[in-house]
Each structure stands twice: as structure tokens, then as C-alpha cells.
Amino acid sequence: MKKFYVMGSDLRLRQTINYRILFLVFLVLFCASLMAIAYMSNNVTINTLKIHTTDTVYIEDLPLTDSAITKELTQLGCMLPNVALAQFKIETGHFRSAICRENKNIAGIRNSASKLSKGLNRGHNVYSTYRDCLRDYVRIQNKYLKNIDGRYAEAKDYTEQLKKVR
To answer: Which of 50, 76, 84, 124 yields a CA-CA distance of 20 to 30 A from 106?
Structure first.
């Protein structure tokens, strides 16, 4: 092994440690530790739901974009999906609020007695996905629309007439 010397303040040569070898040993151990951590954390699943059938299916959550939300609301039969989208933006500060992110609640729904809700956080419903929140919103909307006919307007089929206007 090669010997390394350094000159001291008294101008004498003294033998010293080979720091290059120590650095390489440290680097190898550090890399091995990172690889072990990565291997152990490989079993984590984020934002997916496994449905047990003959095949495994993953349901992705809804992206928080105007087009995706409007499309989903339309597919769910929401009345005035563009108005609902505007309400959601006001409720969540354009989808940036903590309740929106933590609770997956883009509609500001509170105390909804729904099977879609997993509970409450900060006084607002908590959902597994943004889609569940939209489903609950449409469910609540339909509940209130049932009470419009004969009370809000004279026409008995007022709700059906509104749906045709879309």
C-alpha cells in the first residue's frame, strides 16, 4: 500500500491517512444504503384503487382541469355543469385549497349523508377520489331538483325542460 506524507508546521514529514480510500468506501456504503431504501419502499401504491376481479384494474383519479371536470359532470347528468365548475373554483380557490387537496372535495360539500363520503375533516366531507365528490355533488343536486317542480315553477315537468336546454 502506498504511503502518504504531509509536511507539518515544524517542516517534518509525517505519515497521514489516505482519504481517497476512505471517501470511496463511504461512497459505496452510501449508494448501497440508497439502493436498500429504494428497494424497501418499492411496495408503496399511490392514488390507485385495486378492484379484485379476474384481472386487476386501477381507477385513476380525475385531473383538476376545466375540461375533465365539465366532461365528468356532463356524463353524470349534472344540470349546468359550467355553473358548477365556476362554483367549484370559488369554493376551492381554483383547486388550491387544503380542503380540496386533503379531502378530495372540490365542491365544498359539508355533512353530506352519503355512502361516497369517508367521513369529515375540517367540517367538510372527505372522499377517496375527486370523481366520488362529483358523484355526491350530482346526487345532492338531483335531490334538490326533485323539489323544484310545482314549487319553483308552475310547470310540473320543469326539471325535464331544464335538462333539454343543456
So the answer is: 50
CA–CA separation, 92 and 101 (whole Å): 9
Residues 6+ apart with CB under 8 A from 107: 84, 87, 88, 91, 133, 134, 136, 137
pLDDT tens for 14-27 read 776 667 777 788 88
145, 132 in Cβ contact below 8 A?
Answer: no
Query: Which triple of cell numbers denotes residue 45?
Result: 401504491
* Separation between Cα atoms, residue 87 and residue 105, nearest integer Å: 12
Q: Would you kindly state where each structural domain of the chain is located, as residue ranges?
A: 4-42, 66-165
Nearest alpha-carbon partner for 126 in 141, 107, 142: 107
Listed in sequence order, the residues at least 6 apart from 140 whose beta carbon sits closer than 8 Å to its beta carbon are: 109, 112
The 8-class DSSP code of residue 53 comes to S
Instruction: Identify whether the C-beta of residue 106 lies closer than 8 Å to the C-beta of residue 119.
Output: no
Quote the strand ranges of the chain, DSSP E: 4-7, 13-16, 50-52, 56-58, 117-121, 124-127
List 125's β-bridge partners, or say none. Answer: 120
Measured between alpha carbons, how far is 22 from 112 in angstroms, rounded to an integer? 62
Mean pLDDT of 73-102: 92
For the full predicted model, state whether its pTM sits above 0.90: no
